[in-house]
Amino acid sequence: MPTTEVHDDLQLNYLESEEELFDDSASFVSMNMFDIIDEGVLLIDLLEEKRSLEKRLTAVKEKLRLMNGEQPSCNEYAWRTKLTTQQRTTLIFEYNDDAHPSMSRQNELANDLNLSPKVISNWFTNRRKRNPLQFTD
């Protein structure tokens, strides 16, 4: 019978040490979980900052490429042309005068407004599509 008592004592000691280990590991895990979450948040912030910087770098490269007279890269986003108030006003006056200007007139407008002929052509096309009721005679 003494062996069963020793066995029971060992088993009881094992269970007590296991509980202590579990308690220590739980606090260790919870403490590390907060550290891991903080690290994760920091990594996410760094990745977002990296993406933002990459976008800005791509935009600067594209502007330099356009300033040098090169065509936009096919892998990079071609930025939308933003018209100034003067350019938009001139195009609206032209549109009210003639919604279908000739190619020569579009080229003149492009030179006068310092825009590409494609931008002028697209502007008139989009404007006509937005105002279809004006052309039902």
Task: Write a structural description.
There is one protein chain. The protein is mainly alpha-helical and 137 residues long. The protein folds into two domains: 1-78; 85-135, Homeodomain-like (Arc Repressor Mutant, subunit A, Orthogonal Bundle), CATH 1.10.10. It is 76% helix and 0% strand. The protein is built from four helices and no strands. The longest helix has 66 residues, at 2-67. It is elongated. It starts with a helix and ends in a 7-residue tail after the last helix. The mean pLDDT is 77.
Number of strands: 0
What is the SS-derived class? mainly alpha
Distance between the termini: 112 Å
- The number of helices is 4
**Mean pLDDT value:** 77
Q: Kindly give the count of domains.
A: 2
Can you tell me the residue ranges where pLDDT is under 50 for at least 5 consecutive residues? none
Q: Helix proportion of residues, in percent?
A: over 70%
The sequence of SSEs as H and E is HHHH
What's the assembly state of these chains? single chain
Given the C-alpha coordinates, what overall shape results? elongated
How big is the Rg? Answer: 35 Å
Name the beta content range.
under 5%
